[in-house]
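Justification of resources, computational component.

The compute hours requested in this renewal are based largely on the per-chain cost of generating structure records like the one below. Each record pairs the submitted sequence with a full structure-token output. That output is archived, and it is also reused by downstream analysis tasks.
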Amino acid sequence: MNVKIFIVMMTVTQMAFSAIPNKSKNNQINSLAPTAREQALYEQLAGKNAPEPVTNKVMASASKALTLARQSRSEKNYILALKRYNFVLKYYPKTKQAQLALNDKVSLYKEMNLTEPANYNQKKLMLQARTPAKPNATKR
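The structure output for this chain reads:
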């Protein structure tokens, strides 16, 4: 009886360990290395990779994207205008054009009689106005 229990336990143990993927020494060494995101955070904390200030080139790009959004709106192409406003908000969040894009987006939603998204974006605009913007941070 003890032998049967021992054999059953050995079989169960072998099945359990066979379900675990086998890691070689190379995989273990690589898994200890920091990921690219962790490495970027370490560099930022150390001050090696500080965020760049908003440059004239970034401001010009944001301004051009906002102009294209407003042009789409004037042509009554509202879907494209919303996509372009979202582009400005996503890629240039710390610029003046981002606040203008959000304001235009609110008025566009109101023009389209969509009160719920208009109210949502209006709240975002109010929160953005309350919190001071960091002048040196841009999303790339």
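The first helix runs from residue 2 to 19. The radius of gyration is 27 Å.
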